[in-house]
Hints:
By secondary structure, this protein is mainly α. The chain starts with a helix and ends with a helix. 83% of the residues lie in helices and 0% in strands. It has eleven helices and no strands.
Amino acid sequence: MHTLVTVEALLLLAASPGLAGLLLLGPAPANLPLAAVCLLPLGPATAAALYALHHRDRDLTDLHPARSYWRGWRLNAVPVLKLWTPLLAWLTVIAFTLTHFTATGLPGWWAVLLAAIGVGCLLWGAHALVLTALFAFRGRDTARLAGYFLFRHGRATLGAASLLVLSAAGTAVLTEALPALLAAPLLLSLLHSSRPVIAETQEDFTA
């Protein structure tokens, strides 16, 4: 519990510049590019949380999760942004297109296809965050492995999908702040469902 609370607080602190910007933005579709910029700090903050939670699992006597968190942030900030930035840009394009879909003149099935692509990108991003947080691969290798594991370990992908659905439902029914307030337990669940991915990466893709 101590680790979860500490990691949650540090994640919110690290992502606070962007989260504060989001609070100032209105819900207008025209603000989507600015919202994407505000979400940039969330990538390194999330990777650091994954790093801290993973290493806390290895040492049950460690009562200093803040040390692991900031170490994870320093190690992963730049590698994560190399993948997080284009992911956010692509998701912004999809979201902007869907919010202006009637103006495109495209058939309705295109909207379904774009939404499916967006969900697939989010699931790929979940694998990529876990891999970047825990391993030191080149960005392009991480991107390929995340795509490989998307289909290789369907249960892990379904686990990430269930967390995505849970977050979306909580946001719609309760409050938009719910995913941020429950980020640490959600990320711990993501690590749990990603254990096959982590194990195979350690066995087959690391020296």
